[in-house]
Specification:
CATH topology of the domain at 61-178 in chain B: Alpha-Beta Plaits
Number of strands of chain A: 2
Shape of chain B: elongated
Strand content of chain A: under 5%
Largest sheet of chain A: 2 strands, antiparallel
Largest sheet of chain B: 3 strands, antiparallel
Oligomer: heterodimer
Distance between the termini of chain A: 56 Å
Number of helices of chain B: 6
Radius of gyration of chain A: 21 Å
Order of helices and strands of chain A: HHHEEHHHHHHHH
Number of strands of chain B: 5
CATH class of the domain at 61-178 in chain B: Alpha Beta
Chain lengths: 351, 179
């Protein structure tokens, strides 16, 4: 009884802390198993079996990999600036995880009459927050490359930074169409409009394709993985990194993949909405619906992670001039055309 | 001038609109990879499964015994002469009375060594041997830390005694019994 009598603000803090811990754990576990998934997908597409020695089907492989990374010798180059060298991977990891704060994972839970939204922060600027954090992600690369005091790392970091900055523009423009339909920046209301009116991917197919291509570029995934072209361009900005600091960079990439999959699911594929059915008519309890919604959301996000891997093991990398041409000369005009058309349609519908 | 008519001209047509968009071709490529995703895998799970060697595979040598367990080799040196890589050396010794259960002939190899680093596994020793004493089995030389480990002595090459260890004898003889 005493416990229930405490101030509601404490409830809020506790529920948010639990949610944050849960979301971060889920992201970490997903990222861990994405490394395993990546290897398995690669193997399967190349008619191989992939890791299968650690545990049944090799499911303990991520632990073995992480253990290996932890126990490797950690080298900090003498000529590097030590503080920045450590800050780089930390920043990459933090920005990767921060984005998950505004993603609505499911409909609210109902605990003793309290509605607990399964979203860490339903901020007004929602999607802009995602963009802001993703832009900070450039610093992770840039600082890492700079602090290594190695010309190759620095050039790779510049390459990566310019790529990410270039692709943020068409990404933002492609998104504006969605925002015009939703009329709101909040992630939860974007999902809500999709639940009511159908998924955005139906109204914005071009916008989705542009967004998807830019997401690949933002996550440094093939065909845009020039910042870290491990086999031709000297391993990119993490050339001087070893042990778990390298692990952090690689890990952040997988978290980014998962989060961008989740963002795409929210913006274009209706978030936790189940397609073709009216789940409100099932008459299930609020909590059951929340769990189902979470599962649906996760499967959508993981599907995108799979598509990312699928693309990686299908096509080779772009040349750098091709990358820039695609970004500036093709995607930006296309995104602008998409924006103008959807603006006109919205204006016409409003009238 | 063309020597054969197998040369194919390079298609240098400029890309059409769909090709220039890349997306369609990328989609086609993705369909290929996803088909491979569900294909039967080519992997052989090595230590558990082994790929069967061909019937005529020439691997590590064995020194054969006869049915009573006596060494067949009589140290004639024909294998060493036949060996193009000069990998085989031996020292002969005379059989003493009372050793008839050990050696088949009056002369035997006291020392018999094959340097597996020199050996080219051509199988000429097998062909040269008049006594059916040396055969190339269906295994290959395992890795070793030093060069000396690749010089196989007589005790490394001799197969198990059929009287004491009939199963080991059968296993070591393997396919050669059928030759």
């Amino acid at each position: 009884m005493y416990l229930l009598a405490i101030d509601p603000i404490w409830w809020l803090i506790i529920e948010k802390l639990v949610l944050i811990a849960f979301v971060i754990t889920v992201s970490m576990v997903v990222a861990m198993y994405a490394t395993y998934g990546e290897r398995k997908v690669a193997a399967f597409m190349q008619d191989r079996i992939g890791p299968n020695r650690a545990g049944i089907f090799g499911i303990f492989q991520p632990f073995a990999d992480a253990g290996k990374l932890f126990f490797k010798e950690e080298i900090i180059p003498v000529s590097s600036s030590r503080f920045l060298f450590i800050l780089g991977p930390a920043l990459a990891m933090i920005t990767a995880l921060l984005t998950s704060a505004v993603i609505p994972w499911s409909v609210p839970l109902d605990i003793n009459g309290r509605s607990v939204p399964l979203q860490i922060a339903d901020v007004d600027v929602g999607i802009l927050f995602v963009f802001g954090v993703v832009s900070i992600g450039v610093y992770g690369i840039m600082i890492g490359g700079w602090a290594s005091n190695n010309k190759f790392s620095l050039i790779a970091a510049v390459r990566g930074a310019s790529q990410m900055v270039s692709y943020e523009l068409p990404m933002g423009l492609a998104l504006l169409g969605v925002l015009l339909f939703a009329g709101d920046l909040r992630m939860s209301s974007i999902v809500q409009t999709q639940v009511e009116h159908g998924w955005n991917v139906i109204y914005q197919p071009l916008g989705f394709i542009i967004f998807f291509i830019c997401a690949l570029a933002e996550c440094n995934r093939t065909p845009f993985d020039l910042p870290e072209a491990e086999n031709e361009l000297n391993f990119g900005y993490h050339q001087e990194y070893s042990s778990m600091k390298l692990g952090f960079y690689l890990f952040a990439e997988y978290i980014n993949m998962f989060i961008s999959g989740a963002v795409m699911a929210v913006l274009f594929f209706g978030g936790y909405d189940i397609p073709f059915v009216n789940e409100a008519a099932w008459g299930l309890g609020q909590n059951t619906m929340a769990i189902i919604g979470f599962a649906v959301m996760m499967s959508k996000a993981l599907f995108f992670v799979f598509v990312f891997m699928w693309i990686r093991w299908t096509i080779p990398r772009f040349r750098y001039d091709q990358l820039m041409t695609l970004g500036w000369k093709k995607l930006v005009p296309l995104a602008l055309v998409n924006l103008i058309i959807s603006a006109a349609v919205v204006l016409w519908l409003k009238k | 001038m063309q020597l054969t008519n197998r040369a194919k001209p390079v298609d240098r047509r400029p890309m059409n609109a769909i090709e220039r968009l890349y997306l369609w071709n990328i989609l086609k490529g993705m369909m290929i990879t996803i088909r491979h995703f569900f294909k039967k895998k080519a992997t052989i799970q090595y230590p558990e499964q082994k790929r069967p060697f061909s019937q005529v595979f020439r691997g590590l040598h064995i020194l054969n015994r006869d049915e009573e367990g006596r060494e067949r080799c009589t140290a004639c040196g024909l294998c060493a002469v036949a060996c193009p890589a000069e990998a085989i050396t031996m020292e002969a010794a005379e059989r003493e009375p009372g050793e008839e259960n050990l050696y088949r002939e009056e002369k035997y190899a006291a020392r018999y060594e094959i340097n597996m680093l020199r050996c080219i596994f051509c199988g000429y020793c097998e062909e040269a041997c008049p006594k059916d004493a040396i055969y190339l089995s269906q295994t290959f030389a395992p890795a070793n830390y030093g060069r000396s480990g690749f010089i196989y002595k007589k005790q490394d090459l001799l197969i198990p005694n059929p009287v004491e260890d009939p199963e080991g004898f059968k296993k070591a003889q393997g396919e050669i019994a059928r030759k």
